[in-house]
Design a protein that fits this description.
Layout lengths: L2 E2 L3 H5 L3 H11 L1 H16 L3 E7 L2 E6 L5 E4 L2 E4 L10 H16 L3 H16 L7 H18 L13
Parallel strand pairs: 3-5
Antiparallel strand pairs: 1-2, 2-3, 4-5
Amino acid sequence: MKKENPSLFHFLLSGGVKSIFRRWIWELPQTLIGLLLVFYFTVRRRVLYSEKTEGVMIFVTKGRWGGISLGNIIIGSEGLSPVVGNQLFMHEYGHSLQSRSFGILYLFIFGLPSLLSVVFRGSNHHHSFVEKSANKLAYDYFNGKYFLEYWDKVNYPMA
């Protein structure tokens, strides 16, 4: 898996016409909210490091709170590691794949239901359809590209 460490500015303006279109038109709401969250974590000095991999920009922050995916921006706690086999990374990448497919509708179809699931379902959040769908997309992507040896079906069940 190819990893890079570009600046966020460089990342948002790189990748060719298709990637730029996807970030700034098709996934505009997610990109803007992701930028605001990155700014928030940066100002609060919570970002430990950032890295580009698999066409997304990863920001790993202090603490143990999980993660959030907004378009091509994934923000997660210290348990997030941008490597194949890290379940949190692969799960959040699944949400990025949802965003690529549904564009501006992503926040309504997946983002808001996921947030409500966290608030109202608590520990059962990972059993919601939105989360299972992200897991299935991630599993299919990473297993097809890297042939996964393991997937945690208890904590990351699939649809």
